[in-house]
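Q: Sequence in, structure out?
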Amino acid sequence: MDDKETILTPEGLRRLEEELDHLKTVRRKQVAERIRQAKEFGDLSENSEYEDAKNEQAFIEGRILMLEGMLRSVKVIDNHDVRSDVVTIGSTVKLTDESGEDLTYTIVGSAEADPARNKISNESPVGRALLGKRKGQVVTVQAPAGVTRYTVRAIKG
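A: Exactly. Output:
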């Protein structure tokens, strides 16, 4: 994963940096304290509290390594990289699907994707199909649920 470029918006970069800082300064101390308290319960071979704390510690350390790797290979998309005439990473795109439903998505890098907040990855079927498209174009997307067509209504940089 370290060789793969991590594409982020300035907001996404700030969120990852805040998460990394929180894990290093707060969560590490909390889990170390849980481990210390669990050791006081005695026999570690049958101590579920100790096992749980060690598992949490491993998860936190793994997440720290992953975030550090992502931040080492980060490319921040700033506002002058985002255009309003063609869909790029960072664009907010208004679409209409075949049934007439209006949808709005912001195209982001995979590390920042959050479909529940309408932020879709540039690597997703819809995100990949939209890149490079212009207002008025019809986009055909082959997704797991089948083929869907969208019309690009507006692009905001």
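The longest strand covers residues 146-156.
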